[in-house]
């Protein structure tokens, strides 16, 4: 009879525990000499045995590592449903995920694309390979995801952007970018070299799986359409979604489900 | 001990039976005096108690009701995952889902939008309401889904199109359309009146939830871009996805998962 | 010695007489009860034995049958070089080559496409067949050439337009068009039905060989670009040339040589 | 009587000999230390007395100096008709007519624009002046013609391109361009500096007579439309022709006759 109860509890448990686990970790950055907080969401299917894909999910300007989990709690279900780990690093409010030429204390390109990836591969049972790594984000984080993936295609196999600042040049006075790159007026070369739209030459057809979207009422709409057209011109395959909506969490809570569906398709086929 | 086994079987059963059911039904059309074969996919969660949303999924030119289930068996999982019924009617090879002005034996607009909907509502535990009805399809079926939904917004709440022939006028000699509408040269008014792109005046902002997509290598790419631009011009909110790909089942087997995700979001929020 | 001289003269003559002949004829119009002056240019190779292609060459608003021969005398050389007959009918200053719904005395559609064609076939050794008939013109005559050729593809095999008024709707108050069609305000249906750009449904791919051009500084530039884009959208093959230049004889004296080269290629291949 | 026969033969001869002469010459390149084969077509009117214009006609990728004369024998008639010399140099299969920064053995810019021009002026009775020199070509040769003419406007007065690769950047992995310029990923500066579309700043209005064309089904269609739009934006007068057709000799055998007609008009007026 004890056994019976035990089994009932086990079965029930299979349902009860069917929920992703949320950890907050502190990953050390050697290049910045500090620990950086990251939210890690493990799917309920995570058992430490099977290698799991990882999606790096970046926040926007003025945000932090808790933005996504707070504003879109459904990402836990998505992690479960797709059996993926989702990691949300802190992007230091306004780092733009750069190794900033004008501020040596900001080295978030190195942190996310190398140090955090190494941390995840060391501490979790991950697919240690670009075929199991995706990166996406919103706004500043959409810029960041494309910036890091275009430059580090050996690390990431699939990249997304939601309402991303995929060209920063039209916004020379905004969001403290000039503290990182210098003013556009005096250092145009830094702005040219660090705008996602100017890194298209790093791509070749299907070298990277790409999805991005933007709302028609978003102030970043035009730069996303421009990137779409440039990619079409260069013959770089990509998914591009235009939707109703603006620069809001309503928009991103919808968008993220499509981005993750795209990444799941990628993970399902990339290693075959 | 018997009980133990029983419980184990029960628990196991919860997993084993988790599979959609596929019926082939014959729905009678009064207006065409014939039975029409349809494939109906019920989700595993279907219990005859809870009202379930229905997605009407149309095939392309030269196809039949079995195309989708044969070419994309994964739609059974999608029906399960989203707890929706999917119905694939036979579209008579080349009906274009018209009540054809030049061929009174072709009345597929009436069949799909009235007779089949009534059949489904009578024989299944459906949400008997536009908030629980979606319609989508590929190519000729993409045309059909928009054609029926734009004209019958009282019936359908959400509409999709994949690689749809959303403007038929550039193809006056193709796919037997002229047998249904008369030649474009002699009956331009029929072509003008029955092209999806010319029915945009029937829409008002958010009167219908709309998603459509097309591959950049598809011969229908230009008409889809044209519809997207017209909808933008008219301020009609819609999701539009441009992807790599052509007029192939590879394309549609990917596309359908995004279309159903969109419809699931619609069904989840439409009745609130 | 006489013979010698005779032969020398003959040989010389072969060169001397190598010049097109210009006739002015009066072709009767039954429907308008009047004779209409036309300039006919016969190539030097014309011998009354071999069937020759004919190009109908229309003048612009405020012009007459002598415009082309006066302003571009080189068309005689082109007739020679290509062994074609060129006919320039009088278009009554401002007929727009219509059978005008608002002025029954204006029936230039019938005159040019039927009566004049019959006259030419009766009085000259022509190719009596669409494969040997081209039509082009400038401005009002570019409109006219497309208008007549789109509607009478049984008569004309190749059509051109130079700086043509290929959409008249943007010019409701100009060039006395409203005397022919009624005002655009009160009779929009006449304007819609008689604008070249609205006759594209009469074309199917390669049903008519089409060439047109316009100068970038021409006030008709935008309507020509619009027609080009509509033809691309409808998949109707055509040659379209954008050039520097405005609404001037400098422009047309250059343009006509390219139009005739195109027509020569058509005549050379159409009857094979 | 003998005289009579002689005169008859002379007269007849005037017709019989009316045919262009085709030489194959070997022009030495000092910079590449080798002889380079070129086909030279002299018009029948060439008499060594009158200065004659020269059109340099370039082949495409994987071709050689015999491509044009073999595939389009009618260019002999065109040379006759227009009284021009046509020269077809060997472009070394894949030189792209560059002085290649990554391969010092490839110096075809210098060869065509300096050494071959000097050879032609030394060995033939040419107009030794930009007003008597044109250059055009197909595909790689269209790129080459614009590349050389934009950079050497002191040498060439008129330039054409047929289906030209007028922007190479979208094709970083194709046609061995990366052997000449380095990979686009590592040497984007070479690609930027050597794409025709990026040399527009070398032009001023009417500094060079320009004609180019492309088929709507050509893979180079989009780059040609892009160059057309850039030239319009910069106010550089040019003739641009869009036609039906793809990357085929059918297309080019038609195109070349329009290109040469344009060049003839240029030669007729440039020296006045």
TrEMBL record, chains A, B, C, D:
PANTHER family: DIACYLGLYCEROL ACYLTRANSFERASE_MYCOLYLTRANSFERASE AG85A (PTHR48098:SF1), ENTEROCHELIN ESTERASE-RELATED (PTHR48098)
Record's keyword terms, sorted: Signal
Protein name: Esterase family protein
Molecular function GO terms recorded: acyltransferase activity, transferring groups other than amino-acyl groups
Entries under InterPro entries matching the protein: AB_hydrolase_fold, Esterase-like, Mycobacterial_A85_antigen
Top-level lineage group: Bacteria
Gene3D superfamilies linked to this entry: alpha/beta hydrolase (3.40.50.1820)
Signal sequence annotation: 1-19
């Amino acid at each position: 009879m004890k056994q019976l109860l035990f089994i009932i509890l086990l079965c029930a448990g299979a349902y009860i525990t069917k929920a992703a686990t949320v950890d907050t970790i502190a990953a050390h950055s050697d290049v910045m000499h500090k620990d950086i907080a990251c939210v890690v969401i493990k799917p309920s299917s995570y058992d430490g045995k099977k290698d799991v894909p990882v999606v790096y999910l970046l926040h926007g300007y003025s945000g932090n590592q808790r933005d996504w989990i707070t504003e879109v709690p459904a990402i836990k279900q998505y992690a479960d449903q797709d059996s993926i780990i989702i990691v949300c690093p802190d992007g230091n409010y306004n780092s733009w995920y750069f190794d900033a030429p004008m501020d040596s204390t900001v080295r978030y390109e190195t942190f996310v694309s190398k140090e955090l990836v190494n941390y995840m591969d060391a501490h979790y049972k991950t697919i240690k390979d670009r075929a199991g790594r995706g990166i996406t984000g919103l706004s500043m984080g959409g810029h960041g995801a494309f910036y890091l993936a275009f430059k580090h295609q050996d690390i990431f196999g699939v990249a997304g952007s939601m309402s991303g600042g995929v060209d920063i040049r039209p916004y020379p006075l905004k969001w403290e970018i000039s503290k990182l790159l210098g003013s556009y007026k005096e250092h145009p070369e830094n702005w040219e070299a660090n705008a996602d739209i100017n890194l298209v030459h790093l791509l070749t057809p299907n070298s990277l799986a790409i999805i991005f979207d933007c709302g028609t009422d978003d102030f970043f709409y035009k730069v996303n359409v421009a990137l779409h057209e440039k990619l079409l011109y260069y013959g770089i395959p990509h998914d591009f979604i235009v939707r109703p909506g603006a620069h809001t969490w309503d928009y991103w809570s919808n968008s993220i489900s499509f981005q993750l569906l795209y990444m799941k398709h990628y993970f399902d086929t990339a290693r075959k």
